[in-house]
Structure formats: C-alpha cells, structure tokens
Write a structure and sequence with these properties.
The protein is mostly beta strands and 336 residues long. It is built from 4 helices and 23 strands. The protein has a domain at 248-333: TonB (TolA/TonB C-terminal domain), CATH 3.30.2420.
C-alpha cells in the first residue's frame, strides 16, 4: 500500500532509523513527519469512505476542573456512511441524540441544561484534527510508557501541536495542542491506548483527554463490531430535534460572526475566564438552542448565555447555499 508516495515499509524504516540513531532532523524529514501523522490517522479511520458499517459502544467519565464534580455515562455510535449515522450519549440526568441523514443533521437533547463538554466532543475525542492542516516544524524523540516514540511538532495560525506515534505499529499515542500566545489560552493532551484490530484498521479502546481550562474526559470502548442496521427509524428525525446541516462532498463554509457585543463583567469578581457556548446558527444568522459547553462559573455563564443570544452571524453555506450549523462560541471575560 502506498501512502503519499512512500510505502509503509519506507516510512517505518525512516522513523526507526530516526528514533534509534537519534539523527538530526533535515528539512526533508518534515515530509516524513507529515506522513507519520497521515498514516496514524489512516490506520484508525474507521469512518473513511467505503469502510464497513459498525456499531460502537463505550462508557465515559468526565471530571470537572472546577469543583471536581464527576459525570459518568454511555456513548453509542451507529455508522453507515458520512451521510448516515447516529450518535447517542446518556447520563443519569441527560440524553442527547445526533443523527446524520443525507444533507441534514438533527440534534435532540433532554435533561439538565448543563451538559458536560464530552457531549460535544466524544466523536472528535477519536480523534481531534486541526483545520486547516498544520505545518510540520520538527520531529523529536520522546519516551511514552517507557518506550521510544517519534513525535511530530506542528503549528497553524492559532495553535501548535505535538503528535507522538509508535514507530513500530504507526498508531497514534499522544495528541497535544496548545493555543498560540495571541489567542484565547487553551491546552489539551489526549492519550490513546489498547489498540485492537478492526477490519484492516487499528482502533484504540481507551482514550483520555485533559483540557486546561475545561474537563478531564476518559472514553472506554466496550464494543466495536461490524454491523449493518436494518431499522431505518434509527435515522429519522427525533421528536423535538433541531436541524443542522450535514455538508458532505461540497464546499462548506462555517458561520462568520458579524455582530459580537461586549459581554461586560460580573460584579464581585476579579478573575479572567472564558466560557464556551454551544449553539446552532440558523440560516437567518441567529443562535438557537444556546447552551454552556464549558463553564466559567455561574455568574460568568449567565452573562455569556445572555450575550450569545445577541450575536449575529453570516450563516454557514454548503456549495453557496445557506444551512444551519452547530458551532462553539468562546466568550472571554477579562478584568482590566
């Protein structure tokens, strides 16, 4: 099999030589770094075009950085194609369903208004990717679980990252991303373990992401089987669901903020914080179903919810046609 012009054997030889010999990184080794990352994603991409349908079941645990409150729940995904899938998350107090059907996506949730961040990140926990594609800057060697790993450093306009790969199997062991100094501070480290074969792929059965600020999330896969669902009702619009777009195969453009008023600052506080709002931007540019995705504290959350509903956007488009789209809005509170 050829990956970006080189065979897997060539890539492994290059990486093994780099790790064992500790040679300095030449300019053309940055291309090797890019291939390492691409191969790692490819090895675990069970949602690629033409891949078999599957059913995935797992459990997650979320621990809040503030207050240490823990939330446990289950995650289920039924995937047929990029235009036909169902994701479901449930805790003791919250139930959320997201369904993709053709060019539409439906989201339904019930229970508490305060949903843990994992409810919006479970699918991307395996695995988050940078958009646009980051630029590889360096390859280095690092010990992970007492073994050598090839670590590819990269950066984009707003962030810098590190992806560490097992030089033997080629699977991803660590993904780290941090914001650049000129953007809102954030830092996330994800670890991937317990890889097992699934068809011609290798997929991790355990992932843990630590975010600062934010929450610690652990996801354990308890079941992953090839399965073609026969019940079409699984992919119909749930009662009370909000519609979002599912642009596949076309040119998609995200919503663009045209009006973002100052949120002010709550009385009797001195700290700086950022609240992340999850919402769907309708085709008229107005936010709907506004929720807290990452809390900054009760007083900050209240102001963030109020101001987010006043934001106005140029709506997302798919091939030039407006469509509703879900996004995160980061609202920064700074005490000057």
């Amino acid at each position: 099999m050829v990956i970006l012009g080189r065979t897997r054997t060539q890539i492994l030889v290059a990486v093994t030589f780099f790790v064992l010999a500790g040679i300095s990184v030449a300019a053309n080794d940055k291309a090797v770094g890019k291939e390492l990352i691409e191969r790692a994603w490819h090895l675990s991409d069970i949602r690629s075009d033409g891949a078999p349908a599957f059913r995935l079941e797992g459990t997650f645990r979320v621990t809040a950085k503030k207050g240490g409150m823990e939330t446990q729940g289950t995650y289920t995904e039924i995937w047929v194609s990029k235009t036909k899938w169902r994701q479901e998350e449930q805790t003791s107090s919250t139930h959320r369903i997201e369904i993709g059907a053709g060019t539409k996506k439906w989201i339904a949730s019930s229970g508490t208004d305060r949903l843990p961040t994992s409810f919006y990140l479970s699918p991307t926990l395996l695995f988050p990717r940078e958009t646009p594609e980051p630029k590889v800057t360096k390859i280095s060697e690092r010990k992970i679980d007492s073994a050598n790993a090839a670590c590819v450093e990269s950066k984009s306009q707003w962030s810098k990252g590190i992806d560490c790969v097992d030089p033997g199997s080629g699977v991803l062991l660590l993904h780290e991303i941090a914001s650049m100094p000129n953007s809102i501070p954030s830092h996330q480290v994800c670890l991937y373990r317990n890889y097992e074969k699934f068809g011609d792929r290798l997929f991790p059965r355990f992932a843990r992401c630590t975010s600062d600020p934010g929450e610690d999330v652990e996801l354990t896969i308890v079941k992953l089987v090839a399965e073609s669902p026969s019940e079409e009702t699984l992919f119909t619009r749930p009662q009370g669901a909000i519609e979002a777009g599912n642009c596949q195969g076309g040119v998609a453009k995200p919503p663009h903020a045209e009006y973002s008023p100052d949120p002010g600052y709550p009385d009797h506080h001195n700290e700086n914080t950022t609240v992340v709002i999850w919402t769907i931007i309708a085709v008229d540019g107005k936010p709907q179903d506004v929720r807290i995705a990452r809390s900054g504290g009760q007083d900050f959350d209240r102001l963030a919810l109020e101001i987010a509903q006043k934001w106005r956007f140029k709506p997302a488009t798919c091939d030039g046609l407006p469509m509703p789209a879900q996004i995160n809005i980061e609202i920064a509170f700074r005490k000057f």
